């Protein structure tokens, strides 16, 4: 935290919050964790690692046909509209 570049005003404003965080860390450091296994996932599920194959009896678009239909491409890639974030164009 010594590397945080805070002005005097910011240090005064954030000081109580930082003290509370450090106090909470001290509380956690004092817990007896003997016999507690490290937690990697909160649930019992695991990732599925299925084969990267289309389901049986599923129509498959051939790469050549896709390239013919694509409005923007740089083979073997096809440019698609952005769908995350603000939804703006790619």
How do the helices and strands line up, and which of them pair or pack?
Elements: H1 8-29, H2 63-69, E1 73-74, E2 77-78
Antiparallel strand pairs: 1-2
Write a structural description.
- The chain has a domain at 61-85.
- The protein is elongated, with a radius of gyration of 26 Å.
- The protein has helices at residues 8-29, 63-69, and strands at 73-74, 77-78.
- It is mostly helical and 90 residues long.
- Helix content is 32%, strand content 4%.
- The protein is built from two helices and two strands, in the order H-H-E-E.
How do you describe this structure in short?
By secondary structure, the chain is mainly alpha-helical. It has two helices and two strands.
Structural class based on helices, strands and sheet pairing = mainly alpha
Report Rg.
26 Å
Main β-sheet: number of strands, strand sense, barrel status?
2 strands, antiparallel
Q: Count every beta strand, where a strand is a DSSP E run of 2 or more residues.
A: 2
Mean pLDDT, to the nearest integer, reads: 84
Strand order of the largest sheet: 1-2
**Termini separation:** 39 Å
Task: Specify the helix fraction band.
Answer: 25-40%
Tally of DSSP helical segments: 2
